[in-house]
Amino acid sequence: MSAQRRNTLPRAYDAVDIHEDATPRSVDCDIPRMLAAQEARTGHRPTMLFTNIAEYPDRAVLGNPYPRAVMLAALGVTEHDWLTETSRRLTEPPTTRSQAVDGGPWREVAGSLGTLPIIKHRPGDAGRYITAAVGVTRSAASGTTNLGVYRVQLIGPDRGLIFFDPRTDAHANWLEATTSGRDLPIALFLGGDPTHMLVAASRLPNTGNDYDHAARLARRDILITGDPPAPLDAHYVIRGRVTAELATEGPFAEFKGYYVPARQSPTLIVDSVEAIDDAIYPTIVTGAESGVTLMALQNEYLMFEHLTGAGFHVGAVRYWPEARGEFVATIDCTDDLIEVTAAALDFDKRAKIIVAGPDICGHGLRDLWDRVASHGFQVVCAPYFRKGSLDGQRLGIALCHTPIGERVEY
Fold this sequence. Notes:
Elements: H1 2-7, E1 18-21, H2 30-42, E2 47-50, E3 61-63, H3 68-75, H4 82-91, E4 98-100, E5 107-108, E6 129-130, E7 134-138, E8 145-149, E9 152-156, E10 159-162, H5 169-178, E11 184-190, H6 194-201, H7 210-218, E12 222-225, E13 230-231, E14 236-249, E15 252-253, E16 259-260, E17 263-275, E18 281-283, H8 289-309, E19 314-319, E20 328-333, H9 337-347, E21 353-357, H10 365-374, E22 376-386, E23 389-401
Parallel strand pairs: 1-2, 3-18, 4-12, 20-21, 21-23
Antiparallel strand pairs: 2-3, 5-17, 6-9, 7-8, 7-11, 9-10, 10-17, 11-14, 12-13, 14-17, 15-16, 19-20, 22-23
Helix pairs in contact: 4-8, 6-7, 6-8
């Protein structure tokens, strides 16, 4: 059974060693605790396939499902070329697209959400959460199909609470539906090509079809089915409706490493749950690598595309996992660094610190501060707004003045 399950994973997972854990594990915090222990012991968070879930003996869970190596392998790129290649795929005329087909490979799972190994990730979480599902919604007005990552708190076998950040397209689609007296249809899928997750995590323009963006990035046609559509390579597909009814959701351990407080979120009513044979349930263990990696990757290629589109000659962009994948960015550039820094701060309203200079992305975050200490630099400041309120400043550092002499070798 284990080998069969492994064979259902996309080939992108050949890029990492998948460690199998056959020890009985509970869905109540055991899996995140095990992953944290492994990281503390080795300094690295592994991708692990848990095949002995105490409450769900016929299910398997994939922890840390989206490390950087897997995401780049899914795109068919390397660290050296991935930014330029991704930008090219998104800007050139498309040669691939999404295609709707009839039917899919799944069969209905009896018992609805109650049969899925949904994890409680941290002791302080309000309950068990789906964290690695891609939510698919459509705007009734424009017909636009949007992919996004939205956490779901399990509150019953066919009910959950789903968090839509007010800045997301799904929130706009939900308001559009509920203010017209309708529920918002939604599909939530788990597993399949990691490219879907990268697109879902990215702040792409709300135009066209996000599956077409995925097809361009993956360089292949994407087959989808249903309304809202799910990709045929998904392992699990949950279909339902998001209502206007609100209830208290949270607290929840965010991937950035802290609990977000309880809040009012809309109710998800589940109509069906389907799965392929030997399905693998991915979970993003909050406060850890997978969510941070997704945030970093989408920030890197969106910033690169923005700056190069503005005419700057950018060699690389790096957002550092040590800074939660979004708060510290480095930009390799030799253009007017003050202009580059100001443009980067203007584009990314979340980044707290942006450092621009020559040849700084290929080094670690600790080495970056050594370079800042040795270079002469100029500073660009911008306000930081959190949830609409001024919450301090953001800092841009342009390494404009190279120190005299050569750096020592080691």
